[in-house]
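S1.2 Input.
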Amino acid sequence: MRLDTAEYAHSVEFMCTRLDVSKSGYYDWRNRPESATAQRRNELKPLIRQAFDMSDGTYGHRRIHAQLRRWGSTAGLELVRWLMRELGLEPCQPRPKRFGITQAAAGEVPDLVQREFTAEAPGE
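S1.3 Output.
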């Protein structure tokens, strides 16, 4: 269900009346140039994406933040986290390799002691 169709759209005059805003004030706000904060965030987004792609999608916001600092770009940790969420970048953390006893026993294990450990009855 899309809400941006003409069926649900209201006129600017109607919305300005409801929000108690003048039409000239709305158009002035809409045509305003981009703020310095928005420009800075737009500059950081390609750098964050580049660092994420260089890590094969494994770096989280802390490592991306450290990489940006190494590149000489200053940004706060929470800003990097927020921008990564906005870009839809979710790190894939590979699980550590852990080997259990069953995996080691599956292969051929040499008998280095060469002793007989079989018993005729329990407790012998």
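S1.4 Remarks. The chain has a mean pLDDT of 85.
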